[in-house]
Amino acid sequence: MTLALFAQLLVAGVLLGGVYALISIGLTLIFGVMRVVNFAHGELLMLGMYLSYYLVTAVHMNPYLALVVVAPALYLFGLLVEVTIIRSTIGRSDVVQVFATVGLSIVLQAGALMAFSANVVGINVPITNALVQLGPLSMGVPQLLAFAAAMLVASGLFVFLRSTDIGRAIRATAQDRSAAALMGINVAGIYRLTFGLGSAMTGLAGALLMPIYSVSPTVGEQFVLIAFVVVVLGGLGSVTGALVGGLLIGIVETFSGFVIDPQWKQAVYFLIFLGVLVFRPAGLFGARGSEELSTS
Amino acid sequence: MMQMFGFLRRAGAAAAVIALGTAPLSAAPQTIKVGAVFPFSGPLALLGQDSFDGANVALEMINAQGGVKGRKLEWVKADSPNAEAANSEAERLISQQNLKILLGSYASPIAIAASQVAERHHVIYWEQGAWTSALFNNHPKYVFRTNVYAVPAGIAAVHYAINVVAPKIGKDAKTLKVAIVNEDGPFGSSVANAEAAEASKLGVAVVSNLPYTASTNDLTSLVLKLKAADPDVLLATSYINDATLLVKTMRTQNFRPKAIIGGSAGFGLLALGKNLGADVNGISEADAPTNINPKGLPAAGQALHNEFIAKFKAATGREPDGFSYMGFVGAYSLFHDVLPKAKDPENADDIRNAAMAANVPEGTYPNGWGLKFDETGQNTRMFAAMLQWQSQAPVVVGPSSIAAGQPAMIPLPHW
Asked: CB 3.0 to 4.6 Å from B58: which of A187, B163, B290, B331, for a disulfide?
């Protein structure tokens, strides 16, 4: 393997890892704070993609300007879901949560099938085909932007959780719901905010994926498994873990696809995933059985 | 002996009484119910619906002409998004609804599952769109397929590479280098295996043979492997998401073979043109014929072609695609050329005999196909057409009798 080829694979892997991190941050945030494993995560991503698709094709908005509509819209949708469905499952058995969120995912998929049809659609505007050429390295501009967004979202969230009052309240709630409530924190409000934020980030991810991928009602299935792998690998609830886990899987997938075989790349990262779980069940950055929201 | 005749006489009289008693209730002849086993929901729903819409035009045409032996046809729709659902739905249609004919399905896993259930119950399974080579693996007696499938399509793709592409780039079968990539499900593997076998038979070098998983999120590593192998022609069999991703990644990595020849599915869908814009132009594909030049058909075929298109547009508001043509041909051949000739159109053995006797010349149906089954149950009067994306629309460029245009953009211009 030449150096240029190695560099090209590395760049491609890192960029893919950025996409994986991006789609995982909302999932890990919601789990870390609320202990809700959101099986409708892929469908939130799908909604973000569709909204972005229609803003670009029907309103002729720049796909990256569409972000400022998609993220708030998904925030509101997240609030609605939290108030109507998620809230009543908090503190109940895991089975209740699983059924509630799996049910939601089926409803959203079926609703999307009725509303948008099963057509696979994509956007094609000049920026979706734009390239950056650095010597022998070539990178798609949408991939670069998705990577940059993943970094920004992760570090923004990190700072928000560390140095704002609301952020501290979120972390306190994540660590001990009862103690947080005794300290005067509005736990229900924090949950609502967290689910809204997690949904907004997932919507944002959807809008950033739209210039790269096509969307159909079942597109969530294509991404949700990898998001779960990234989140568990990085440590449930850890934002840093999602970032590192995403990058790790992106790089492993790209190199194993080249060195071994494109058919086996998924098997390779699942093997690594299993290995990590055997030796570090909490994931790379998960602390004490993922019992707290780690920002370290 | 006499006692037995007496019994028979009494039984006959009783049967006559029962028949008379129920006759007023069934004054109109009963409809013939046909199970429609298609994916109407889930990821395969788009093309499942396209296929069914084509078949439905055939059913309505035959009903408008008075049905089969005076009996109207009626669908019993069974949503089968995957093989498990196809299995249970086929079982339900046969055991509970007592259907004798199932028609499906467009998707290979669904076709395999539903056809096995039908065969077990001695019920006709009529496939109009699935491409797998494995449909007849167990030598079923009641399974028929009217459409082109993986093997003839893969062979057509290789012949196009040798006969059309190679001369335009100064090569021949002995010097041409091809690479084969495919999604690794039964569909992609069937086409890729046929391509590899035909290439090796004709002495064409296969420099790379790379299956991948269709749900992949990234094909950079595959494209870099292809680039290193440096083929003249890329033979690719993909669904729509991965076909889009493949071409986009080839552009990002500046990999441009002299020709790209797809194997149906993703490479033939109008969505590919929308996803790729002008980058789609020049891509060729072996596929079921669609948008053929009807002047290549005999007069009767032209008339049916025009009637099909008009009725399809009126019913759905859109143009038929290759799957709609296959759906129509499958259903029309059954309803028009087989069932009316069966002694009892709801008896599987009678239908089988009528099907094996069917002899409809090529050019009769709207996509140029006819009907003549081989001993396995595969229609032999079908063929793959070669299409090429020109001005962001697929144009039939072969076979020449029904071609609507000429192959162009060979070699492909640089990105």
From this structure: B331
Which uninterrupted H or E stretch holds B278? none
To the question of pTM greater than 0.90 for the whole model, the response is no
Pick from A12, A129, A266: which is nearest to B220 by CB?
A12
User: A133 lies in a domain?
Assistant: no
Of the candidate CATH numbers 3.40.50.150, 3.40.50.2300, 3.60.21.10, 3.90.1150.10, the domain formed by B32-148+297-357 belongs to 3.40.50.2300
> Which CATH number is correct for B151-287+385-402, 3.20.20.10, 3.40.50.2300, 3.30.70.260, 1.25.40.20?
3.40.50.2300
Partner-chain residue, chosen from B49, B213, B279, that has the shortest CB–CB distance to A263: B213
Smallest Cβ distance to A138: which of B244, B253, B275? B253
Cα-based torsion angle of the residue sequence B17, B19, B20, B23 in order, rounded to the nearest 10 degrees: 160
pLDDT tens digits for range A196-211:
999 999 999 999 999 9
CB-CB neighbors (< 8 A) of A42 in chain B:
none
Q: Which residue has the tokens 């004054």?
A: B27
Q: Where in chain B is the domain with CATH 3.40.50.2300?
A: 32-148+297-357, 151-287+385-402
Cβ distance of A121 and B253 shorter than 8 Å: no
Here the ipTM equals 0.86
Model confidence band, residue A280 (pLDDT cutoffs 50, 70, 90): confident
With an 8 Å Cβ cutoff, are B269 and A117 in contact?
A: no
Across chain B, which has 415 residues, the per-10-residue mean pLDDT values are 47 48 56 96 84 97 96 97 95 96 94 97 97 93 97 97 97 96 91 96 96 92 95 96 94 95 89 91 95 93 96 95 94 98 96 98 96 97 97 94 95 93
Query: Residue A255: its chain B contacts at CB < 8 A?
Result: 221
For chain A, what is the domain count?
1
Judged by CB atoms closer than 8 Å, whether chains meet at B275 and A214 is answered as: yes
What is the three-class DSSP state of B183?
strand
Query: Which strands sit side by side in the sheet containing B385-390, from one edge to the other?
Result: B205-212, B177-183, B233-237, B259-263, B284-287, B385-390, B393-398
Q: How far apart are CA B378 and CA B381, in angstroms?
A: 9
Q: Characterise B203 by phi-psi region: left (phi > 0), alpha (psi -120 to 50), beta (else).
A: left
